[in-house]
């Protein structure tokens, strides 16, 4: 039934290659099917002005898509002079999702910036960015702990994200682009490793959905996030 031939509850193949770039304190290339995202983490000895002097750390994110990450070339946002609304919304989502798994007191008054660059898109780029972004963050924090710059681990729980939706009348896990573009209902689910919800984005694209269908999608998302967290842990081991 699915264009890819996957079962309803089957994820695309997922791989995470760590230390993908030379200079970043943490980096990885995450592949979720044909969606590929480079995630890097940069440690900075500064925080935004609104928390300066509070002793709290900060995690922020930036997100972008390369011009030929999609089937036709998109214009670089830098050449347009401003970021698009979708880009701003996604990078704010990444930042607040990752902060939900951080003890900002233990992190100390420093900032870790997560950059997520989509080099190939086939649906679920924001979810892949969050999942890979946590791995980059984990690796950067490991370096802080190894250097003795922080005493206790500020990452209290892994954070991962997956998309689910209603495609051809059936609830499915991890939508690729052909499914995403045709789905009657589309949702993004961000959770911690202990299955605590951080954010749920669900919308009726072509049809309304019932409470029972929403619960089915939640069950699929829990399964998917559980698989992603195990892959995250294995990559960082």
From TrEMBL:
Cited function: Phosphorolytic 3'-5' exoribonuclease that plays an important role in tRNA 3'-end maturation. Removes nucleotide residues following the 3'-CCA terminus of tRNAs; can also add nucleotides to the ends of RNA molecules by using nucleoside diphosphates as substrates, but this may not be physiologically important. Probably plays a role in initiation of 16S rRNA degradation (leading to ribosome degradation) during starvation.
Record-linked HAMAP family: RNase_PH (MF_00564)
Name of the protein in question: Ribonuclease PH
Organism: Pseudooceanicola atlanticus
Residues reported to bind phosphate: 86, 124-126
EC number: 2.7.7.56
Gene transcribed to yield this protein: rph
Exoribonuclease phosphorolytic domain segment(s): 10-140, 157-224
One of the protein's GO biological processes: rRNA 3'-end processing
Family: Belongs to the RNase PH family.
